[in-house]
Amino acid sequence: MNRVFLFTAGAILVLFEVFTGFFLYTQKYGFSVNGIKQYIHGNPELFIQPKTIYGLIEVHFPHFFVVFLTAFVLMHFFYFFRLGKIHFFTAVAVFLLAFANFSSVFIVFFWKELAVFKLISAVLFNISFIFTAIFLVFTILKKHLTGTATDKLR
Amino acid sequence: MRYAVQHKKSSYINTLVVLFSLSVYLFLAVFLVYKYLAEEVFPSDIYTVIAGKPEEYIEGLTFLQITEKLHTEVFLLGMVYLTIFSINLRVSINEKLKNVLTICGFLCLILYCAGILLVKTGIPASAYVYTFSFLSLVFIFTAVNTLNIYGFTRGKRK
Fold it and tell me: Taking CA atoms, what residue in B is nearest to A27?
């Protein structure tokens, strides 16, 4: 019971991080290609200062460690359940999308036209994380209700 | 020979757990001091920080600032929660006590977030919820950490 509760708590905490992160993203970048361009390259008409490479690195460098650590912690919970192809696919997707999301800021810094890449990667990254957390909770519930999803979780 | 290798491995993991647990004590102490210096421990202080005090020209935090704060703090506390309670799974103590501590720790973490958000919505009593949950959280983390050290140094582990 204890382990099951700990896994569920982990999934809920990750969901909380994803939702607050997405809220902060929409507040800073907005939910449009123009918003992303304005946030990074500035807009003199709206008195928005352009970001420097130092400013972008300052915000994003902790995320390069923290997000992958969170992804690892979340994905390793599946190790205690019966694994299938979907787990490998989900793990690869989460890591690749996280990398795409955080590196896209620097791509947009150098190529303004690729702002749409940041928008798409951010949306897909958040969806992949939410899917993984919900999938984990679903797997735990399935195990708990039918007792068939695991051979290691006791 | 096999016994000697296993004994060495066991001593190694004990040392790692003890060193890690000591660093968690340090983290909790520094976090508590940081909160105290930022005037975010006692109910009246946290209410002033979040809701502001117009008569003293103190501006409260915006919803964006609060979300940023929660985003960082919940990550840190969440990781500490998952790590120390995962270690605690390996300690041989009463299962009911383990369950109670795990559930209470998580509830305190949720109440900690809810307390801050409710203060912003203008419910003064929620500042007490915040203070109580924060201090309980630190207390539970310290207790579980101590149990981990006790379990691993006394050989009471699975």
Answer: B64
Residue A8: how many other CB atoms lie within 10 Å: 18
At residue A154, the pLDDT reads 44
The residues spanned by each domain of chain A are 3-146
B146 contact partners, CB below 8 Å, separation of at least 6: B21
What interface predicted TM-score (ipTM) does this complex get? 0.83
Inter-chain touch A6–B89, beta carbons under 8 Å: yes
Comparing CA positions, the residue from B104, B80, B84, B86 lying closest to residue B31 is B80
- Give the confidence band of A61 by pLDDT, cuts at 50, 70, 90: confident
Chain B residues in contact with chain A using a Cβ-Cβ cutoff of 8 Å: 64, 67-68, 70-71, 74-75, 78-79, 81-82, 85-86, 89, 95, 98-99, 102-103, 106, 109, 113
**SS3 sequence, B62-124?**
CHHHHHHHHHHHHHHHHHHHHHHHHHHCCECCCHHHHHHHHHHHHHHHHHHHHHHHHHHCCCC
Supply the pLDDT for residue B136.
Answer: 95
- Burial (0-12, 13-18, 19+ Cβ within 10 Å), A95: middle
**Min Cα separation B131/chain A (Å):** 20
Which pLDDT value is given to residue A149?
47
Please enumerate in sequence order all residues whose Cβ is within 8 A of that of B68, keeping only pairs 6 or more positions apart, or say none: A24
